[in-house]
Amino acid sequence: MPHDPTLERLLSFLQRSPTPWHATANMVARLEQAGYRHIDETQSWSLSPGDRIVVTRNDSSIIALQLPESGLEALRMIGAHTDSPGLRLKPNAPIVGRDWMQLGVEVYGGALLAPWFDRDLGLAGRVHVRRDDGRLQGVLLNVDRPVATVPSLAIHLDREANNGRALNAQTQMAPVFLQGGEHNDLQRLIKRWLYEQHKLENIDILDFELCLYDTQPPARIGIEGELIASARLDNLLSCFIGLEALLDCDGSQGAILVATDHEEVGSASTSGAQGPFLVDVLRRVHAQLGDGSEDGWVRLIQASRLISCDNAHALHPNFADKHDAAHGPSINGGPVIKVNANQRYATNSATSALFRDICREAGVPVQTFVTRADMGCGSTIGPITATELGVPTLDVGVPQWAMHSIRETAGSKDRGYLIRALVAFLNRRILA
């Protein structure tokens, strides 16, 4: 297969981003390398036309802005989310008994549980500590080797296993972690890992948010490398695509990438799409580079457009009947416009027409997804952001299989298609 630098960057980003906090840190680092200035929400801002800035909240949500050289008249926004379904440790995680320490977990989001069995699981997230001088500090932790597993029950002990059975997240999903052991062993190990990774000594662990994740690395698969397989494609693939587009655009227009946390659990948080993060940042920008008036604010938002990027359900060859016959997107068939009459997606004919014209301009194929009328429909940050901000919005996504599994699959060509379309969107002078 030919050398593909963009694909290599994607696979590296996926492997180095086991949690929303790591994904955000990696995006910030890439933006800073490209000349973006990381600014703090708690400080006063001094903005100028042409500035490139990046802001984070909760260390898990990010907004990057390319401010226009001329007047602040319209913004081209790309939206995504940093979180993915999975297993997260409970605060008092150790479960000791029957010769093993296990870890009590909560299911985060709508995870497919069966694929979590018999995987080599690492541990990652953020830990808040008190240093010996009294300072409180949050640090990232990534134990990127297998330290836990959720073993299956042998079929000899459950002859009905292949006939479908419910999984109990409380009693059947606790990973085995350490043979023997005591309750304080988890804190002891976290301290050891923090020393190995950050040289932190003489600390007290005050709290943590830790996730289990599959340590199998991302890969390009298929005879011709047609597919990408990885954990967290939903929705780190969109984060990566949006970042690539922002860095590839010509910078002539006002451009924004916003990637928020907690989409998989409803987005209702200070750093989620239903929270005030985006509005807070845009109002501060408008106050300095716009006219600062309420009338000017409404005109800016209504002249702007948001493309919300979250992966779409590709037609599954083994379950074709789960799709509407006329709306089954193909892997490597191009980005998918997501439509729902009940506003589970924010797409309307005006925003869809704009995207179709952008794809024509960029030479990118485009597809449409509508769920079967007798099935429920998921949602994205699109309708939430459109409701909170009032900006005309479109929901699109790269088609994928196995959404919310521990390992998902997408097409190797589709990320390039969507990057090209988004670059054309960010460079476009007229958005109407």
TrEMBL record:
Cofactor(s) listed in the protein's UniProt record: Zn(2+)
GO MF entry, a single one: metallopeptidase activity
Position of the signal peptide: none
Gene3D superfamilies assigned to the protein according to its UniProt record, in alphabetical order: Aminopeptidase i, Domain 2, Zn peptidases
GO biological process, one term: proteolysis
InterPro entries in the record: Peptidase_M18 (IPR001948), Peptidase_M18_dom2 (IPR023358)
Entry's transmembrane regions: none
Record bears the keyword Plastid: no
Gene Ontology annotations for the cellular component aspect, listed alphabetically: cytoplasm
Record keywords, A-Z: Aminopeptidase, Hydrolase, Metal-binding, Metalloprotease, Protease, Zinc
SUPFAM superfamilies in UniProt: Aminopeptidase/glucanase lid domain (SSF101821), Zn-dependent exopeptidases (SSF53187)
Family per record: Belongs to the peptidase M18 family.
Descriptive protein name: M18 family aminopeptidase
Species: Modicisalibacter xianhensis
